[in-house]
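Data card: per-record layout.
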Amino acid sequence: MKKKQIVAGFLTAVMALGMVGCGSRSAEEAKQPEAGTEAPAKEAEEAAEQDEPLEITFVTPLLGNPVWLAAKQGAEDAAAGSGITVNWVGPGDIDMDEQVRQIELAIAEGVDGIICCPLSPSIFETVYQKAQERGIVVINTAVDTAEDTRTAFIGTDYVNFGEQAARNLAEKLGGKGEVACLVTSLDTENQMAELEAGKALWEKEYPDIKIVVTETSNSDTAQAANKTSAILDTYPELDAIWCLESTSPLGVAQTLTERGMLDQICVLGIDDTEDVLDLIGQDKIWGTMTQNFYKMGYEAVKMIETVKNGGTTESVQDSGTTLVTKDNLEAYKNGM
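The structure for this 336-residue chain is written out next.
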C-alpha cells in the first residue's frame, strides 16, 4: 500500500537507504515471488497495485487560513467519489522550511501527487526535483516556480491581477494620490510580481499616482496594524493602502478605526475571506480583489488525476479574479 505510518526517524532512514519505489515491497522482494506463485497471479497483483486510488498531499502555506481552507474544500470536492485521498498538511504560521519538510515526508510516503504554494520558489526547487524523480506529480497553486521544476500551475495570473487591481484603485482615486503597499515579504514572488505590474501600469497610464512605501506584514494582522500606524505617521498625505495578502486588511482597518481615519484612506484588499467581506460591508475598507482558491484546489486534484491516468494538462491555468466593493457585495456573496 502507498500509505504508511510515519515513525520517528523514518524519513532519515529512507533517505539514507535510497527509496526505490512507492509500494510497500522492496524492489528485491518484487523479484522473488513466493513459492508456488504463478506468473498470472503476480501480474494480477501488480495490476491491483496500479489500480490503487490516488493519494495526494496538499502542503498549504497557512493551515487555518480561510482562503486556503477554500482550496482544501475544492480539492476534497474534486476527490469525492473517486477514492482519491487528499492529505491536508502545513504550518500554522508562514514557515517555508516546514512546508519543505512536509513535502519530504510526502515523498517518503510515496504519494502520487503533491499540491503546494511555494511562497519563495527557490527554496522548493531541490525538493521538487526529488519528487519528480520519484514520479510524483507536482502542482503549484497561487505561486509558481520555474516550469521545469513542476508539472503544472493553477492560480491567478500575476500580471493581469496586478494591472486590474492598480487600474481599479487608480479610478477610485481619480487618477492621483499617494499609495502605501503591504505584502507578506519582499521575496513572495506572486505578490511582488503583482505589485510590479501595478506599478508599471501607473507609471504608464496614471503618472500622478505614486507608491511611497512598501512594507511587509508576514501575513500577520498585528504586524499589519503596527506597520499601518508607522506608515500614517511617516506619510500624513497618504491616500490609499493596497494590501496584497489576505490578513493585512484586518490590521489596516483596525488602525484606521482607532485613529478615526476610515473616511480618509482608501483600502484595497485581496481575497474574499468572511472577515474581508465584512469589512467592506461595514465601510471599513473600500474593496477587495478576489482569487478563486476553491478552483485552485479543485483543478489541482483533477490535474494530478489526469496525468496519473496517462493524460496531459496545460502548464499554466489562470483561476481568475473579481473586484468586490459594497456596490456588488451582496450579489457576489449570493453567487458564491
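Known properties of this structure: The longest strand covers residues 209-216. The two ends are 38 Å apart (CA to CA).

See the next section for split statistics.
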